[in-house]
Amino acid sequence: MFENDLFMPTAAIATGSYCRLEAASPESVQARLKGHHHMMHADLIDQDDLLSQLRALGFEMPAGANAEQACECAVRGLDATRARALRGLVEQLLSGSATLLPTVRQAIDKNLLPALARFGRP
Question: Is the pLDDT of residue 29 over 50?
Fold first, then answer.
């Protein structure tokens, strides 16, 4: 299987909580976003790509999470900074030339878009 240079393995979360939020300052989120724009050049965005892109923004989820679970984790505890970062990623994914696998698109449609709509525009 193809691994991109952004794959960041994380250990399963032992706290009993399904997801864990990492504290992030607006500056750290922006720095993470700036360094990861090149990942959108793939022809196909699969579940692993989505998870690694969410992790690159500071969202954590257990190893083996599927696209739906990853998106559920991303919207838990959403704040203004995380919503901006997530909105940027979603806009890149939906407007880019890469093809989203159906499970990735469904997870975005079901979880990320409604959460971002509730959060409103900055």
Answer: yes
